[in-house]
Design goal:
heterodimer; A: TIM Barrel; 12 helices; 9 strands; 48% helix; globular; B: alpha/beta; Rossmann fold; 17 helices; 14 strands
């Protein structure tokens, strides 16, 4: 009954074996509706995403910029439930892609941390990315994740001290999520040069794999980041593409973007 | 003089990050450095005599502290005839207790070398207070306010602008206080190098619950001494309204280790705690994480925040400070819901019996005192032996529009508001 589960680490290592960085695509479940978000995630896998982050929409997304926050609100207005997210995990993980859930902590706490870990693992999910849960507060989640062999992906930021980079790297499994700039999610014309320094500092602090997110929207930016990071995370740009047109046209726009980004993460090998 | 509670550490010694199982820091890693800096700066400042001197000079010369206590015998007729004493935070500069917190945080902002402050506001009282402190200290200031609230509290928006602050209407989510907090956090994480977040209540990630409490505890420290000086004894109970809970923590704190003093927090029950339109977080909520801390909150089965409802914008918040959640679970403080109708009755009653127009927030505490006083007397207490100390956290100028709508005070002239209790209360003052 449990699905075979692909971890984020395996997906990154396979990409590395091909001489490239992994492409990670974020999509919130329920945007524009649950079935379409599942179809969109599967399309992203076909177009070259190695890892899918399924967003669990939350009423108070304090770390998200306007694009992701509006998509989450639309999903909630459409009645999306935590159970829908677990169904989406099952259907996306069936593609063979590593499938993570990105969620604020309260929905997990409310569902029951141990129960969530159990159900996520049973659905074939790889683990969680927790933007408002730092390792210092994550004892209950870490224990549940360890029991089920789930990835625990914590974030680091340019403001993180060396001590915290080491602590967070130690606490993470799968990869460490490096927030490229100080700020919320969203498309930016330039990804801060601080990203490369942060990746280096995080590796020096002991991280095995480091992926970079926040602000990445183009193939050129993806290529630039792929030159120094193990993975490139694209969120707001994917959401924007999916929302650019209704129905299949939105999914086609997403497919085009992901194909393009995949070329970006592959181009650094020749650089 | 300080009673130990159950033989363990004094309750007053709690400094966070945790209050029992509540509190903590559920925020983005990007904010941790700033929160650590603030914690370190506060740990130094709170024991620094120079800081204490600066703060107490501001409190005296700018805010007008100590605020007096006022006995209100005509009002007290409606509270079972017990003695009711108000702690007059409404007389502070800017009209509420909020100034106590912002002056301390503005001083701290200077100390950590930042040049800009941001704040969230619901009713506008904290926004006005922050804009005031920013003007006084020459700091750049941006206030986030739900678009819905900017409409409800247009006068306070104008006050903030006069004081030189930029007011940003927040159009996300429910367009109220909780969304203004989300937006302020987004600003902070982006501009943290130059900017300090002046949080308005005893909620949020550590160190805010302890920091704001420390800056508000002057209310209870003054009141406790004033009660001893004037009446020779401590009150039977201390009553305060609770939204996020800063005035309540401020007045409760000095009494936490006086086990004979009951503590009553009055939450906004809106249309009633048994309806789905209220803000009674502790009475009707459950533990969870919101805005950076674990505490009681109003949430649905999936952990999505439920929008709160109250006639009082300042209490219209689906969360509450973690120290209150702890005191509730310990049984040290009791929390009960006061409906819009009960609060507005108390609002009118204090106005016409004592000549004091309270903030609608504070009117929830007045209504709670009315209920508690009657209950105690019905339970057999001699009214002469009961004293209720009520935090009058703010004045009601900002609420006149709401009162016009509620009581139908439109048109030209007409009689004043009367209540059934007025006739027999008329000569009470003579007997004092």
């Amino acid at each position: 009954m449990s699905q075979p589960r692909r971890t984020a680490g395996a997906a990154i290592d396979d990409a590395r074996a091909q001489g490239r960085s992994a492409l990670v695509v974020y999509l919130p479940v329920g945007f524009p509706d649950v079935d379409s978000s599942i179809a969109a995630a599967r399309a992203a896998v076909e177009a070259g995403a190695d890892i899918i982050e399924l967003g669990l929409p939350y009423s108070d997304p304090g770390m998200d910029g306007p694009v992701v926050a509006a998509a989450a609100q639309q999903a909630l207005d459409g009645g999306v439930r935590t159970s829908d997210v677990l169904r989406a995990v099952r259907e996306v993980a069936a593609t063979g892609a590593a499938t993570l859930v990105m969620t604020y902590y309260n929905p997990v706490l409310r569902y029951g941390v141990a129960r969530f870990a159990h159900d996520l693992a049973a659905a074939g999910g790889a683990g969680l990315i927790t933007p408002d849960l730092i390792p210092d507060e994550a004892g209950e989640w870490a224990a549940a994740a360890d029991e089920h062999g789930l990835d625990k992906i914590f974030l680091v930021a340019p403001s993180s001290t060396t001590e915290r980079l080491a602590m967070t790297s130690e606490a993470s499994r799968g990869f460490v999520y490096a927030a490229s700039t100080m700020g919320v999610t969203g498309v930016r014309s330039a990804v801060g040069s601080g990203a490369e320094a942060l990746v280096r500092r995080t590796r020096d602090a002991g991280a095995e794999r480091v992926c970079v997110g926040i602000g990445v929207s183009t193939a050129a930016q993806a290529a630039e980041i792929a030159a120094f990071a193990d993975g490139v995370i694209v969120g707001s740009a994917a959401v924007r593409a999916l929302g650019s047109a209704p129905g299949d046209a939105g999914i086609d726009a997403l497919r085009t973007l992901v194909t393009d980004l995949r070329r970006g993460v592959e181009s650094e090998e020749s650089a | 003089m300080t009673a130990e509670h159950g033989g363990s550490a004094p309750l007053r010694s709690a400094t966070g990050p945790y209050f029992g199982e509540f509190g903590g820091r559920f925020v983005a890693e990007a904010l941790i450095a700033a929160l650590d800096d603030l914690s370190v700066a506060w740990d130094k400042a709170r024991v620094d005599p120079t800081f204490a001197l600066e703060l107490s000079a501001l409190a005296r010369d700018y805010t007008g502290r100590p605020s007096p206590i006022t006995e209100v015998p005509r009002f007290a007729r409606s509270a079972g005839g017990v003695r009711v004493v108000l702690k007059r935070e409404d007389l502070n500069h800017t009209g509420s207790h909020k100034i106590n917190n912002v002056l301390g945080q503005a001083l701290l902002t200077k100390r950590i070398g930042k040049s800009r402050v941001i704040a969230e506001t619901g009713a506008g009282q904290h926004g006005v207070a922050t804009a005031t402190a920013a003007a006084l200290f020459g700091l750049e200031c941006t206030i986030y306010m739900g678009e819905e609230d900017t409409r409800r509290q247009a006068l306070n928006v104008a006050r903030m602008r006069l004081l030189g602050a930029e007011v940003v209407p927040v159009t996300a989510g429910s367009r109220t206080l909780k969304d203004a907090i989300n937006e302020a956090f987004r600003d902070w994480v982006t501009n943290v190098e130059t900017t300090n977040y002046v949080f308005g209540t005893v909620a949020g990630p550590h160190p805010f619950p302890a920091l704001v409490r420390d800056l508000q505890k002057v209310i209870g420290e003054e009141a406790r001494q004033q009660m001893l000086d004037r009446f020779g004894e401590l009150p039977t109970a201390v009553v305060a309204c609770v939204g996020g809970g800063s005035n309540a923590m401020g007045i409760f704190h000095a009494f936490l280790d006086d086990p004979d003093v009951a503590l009553l927090g009055c939450e906004a029950a809106g249309d009633g705690v048994d309806t789905d339109r209220h803000a009674a977080t502790i009475s009707k909520g459950s533990p969870g994480v919101l805005h950076g801390a674990k505490s009681y909150l109003l949430q649905d089965e999936d952990g999505q925040t439920i929008e709160s409802h109250s006639i009082s914008a300042g209490l219209d918040y689906p969360g509450v400070g973690p120290e209150h959640s702890w005191l509730a679970d310990l049984g040290r403080a009791t929390y009960r819901g006061i409906s819009d109708a009960e609060a507005m009755e108390a609002f009118a009653l204090l106005s016409r019996t004592e000549g004091i127009i309270p903030a609608i927030e504070s009117a929830h505490a007045l209504a709670g005192a009315m209920v508690l006083g009657r209950e105690l007397v019905e339970g057999g207490a001699d009214p002469q032996d009961v004293t209720l100390l009520v935090s009058l956290s703010g004045r009601g100028d900002k609420d006149v529009e709401t009162a016009i709508d509620w009581f139908g005070l439109t048109g030209n002239g007409g009689p004043g508001l009367r209540g059934a209790d007025d006739a027999d209360a008329a000569d009470e003052r003579v007997g004092e």
